[in-house]
Specification:
The complex is a heterodimer of chains A (113) and B (113). In chain A, the strands form two sheets. In chain A, strands 2, 4, 5, 9, 10 and 11 form a six-stranded mixed sheet that branches. Chain A contains no helices and eleven strands. Chain A is mainly β and 113 residues long. In chain B, strands 2, 4, 5, 6, 9, 10 and 11 form a seven-stranded mixed sheet that branches. A four-stranded antiparallel sheet of chain B has the order 1-3-8-7, with no helix packed on it. With 113 residues, chain B is mainly β. Chain B is 0% helix and 50% strand. Chain B has strands at 4-7, 10-13, 19-25, 31-37, 43-51, 54-57, 64-66, 76-78, 87-94, 103-104, 108-112. The chains are: A mainly beta (113), B mainly beta (113). The A-B interface holds A 1, 4, 6, 9, 30-31, 33, 35, 41-45, 48, 88, 90, 92, 94, 99-101, 103-106 and B 40-45, 59, 90, 97-99, 101-107.
């Protein structure tokens, strides 16, 4: 079945440093979604990428979807303590009219002040 | 305010007991989902329902059961057949199947003693 690998599993940075998490799929994706889960909270949708090579920005967050639609990345510039949490990618595949969504295991980000 | 309500937030049960987790949404979404989250793991799909009176097994359905008698409600029963039920359970809904943004409830943390 479809697999979505996410690395790193964990990263600890100093406030102000940059952070990147990478997501790789074993199959070509229809689209990819990113979610953030704060400690003790529930996942919250950040963004969806659909087009090959797409790049989207949300303030200090930059999301990219690979040309082959098999990988994606989330880059945070100048991290802040409010960025703490686990970031999940979720890949959507379409097969015979049915869609499936598979989550990566997430990257836990810790930011020290 | 529209959203998803899960209850209870915390639940303790003895081994061998069935427990039912409630999930109610007022977003008028057709599709609803149950995920299980374990520490260091991604979200694994238990069951999903695209329409009232219909539901399908996800990746880890064994030991769980659901019903979808009303559009706004999708309760999950964790049966005594589930070998390792202690986990964080998340309910979600979308307006557009798996290709749409997932809206999550705040989760129910089940501990089996």
């Amino acid at each position: 079945g479809q697999q979505v690998m996410q690395i790193p599993q964990y990263q600890h940075v100093q406030e102000g440093e940059d952070f990147t998490t990478y997501c790789n799929s074993s199959t070509t994706l229809s689209n990819i979604q990113w979610y953030k889960q704060r400690p003790g909270g529930h996942p919250v949708f950040l963004i969806q990428l659909v087009k090959s090579g797409e790049v989207k920005k949300q303030k200090r967050l930059t999301f990219q979807f690979g040309e082959a639609k098999k990988n994606s990345s989330l880059h945070i510039t100048a991290t802040q303590t409010t960025d703490v949490g686990t970031y999940f990618c979720a890949g959507v595949t379409m097969n015979s009219g049915y869609s499936t969504l598979t989550f990566g295991k997430g990257t836990m980000l810790l930011v020290s002040p | 305010d529209g959203g998803i309500t899960q209850s209870p937030k915390y639940l303790f049960r003895k081994e061998g007991q069935n427990v039912t987790l409630s999930c109610e949404q007022n977003l008028n979404h057709d599709a609803m989902y149950w995920y299980r989250q374990d520490p260091g793991q991604g979200l694994r799909l238990i069951y999903y329902s695209q329409i009232v009176n219909d539901f399908q097994k996800g990746d880890i359905a064994e030991g769980y059961s659901v019903s979808r008698e009303k559009k706004e409600s999708f309760p999950l029963t964790v049966t005594s057949a589930q070998k390792n039920p202690t986990a964080f359970y998340l309910c979600a809904s979308t307006g557009g199947g798996f290709t749409g943004e997932l809206f999550f409830g705040e989760g129910s943390r089940l501990t089996v003693l």
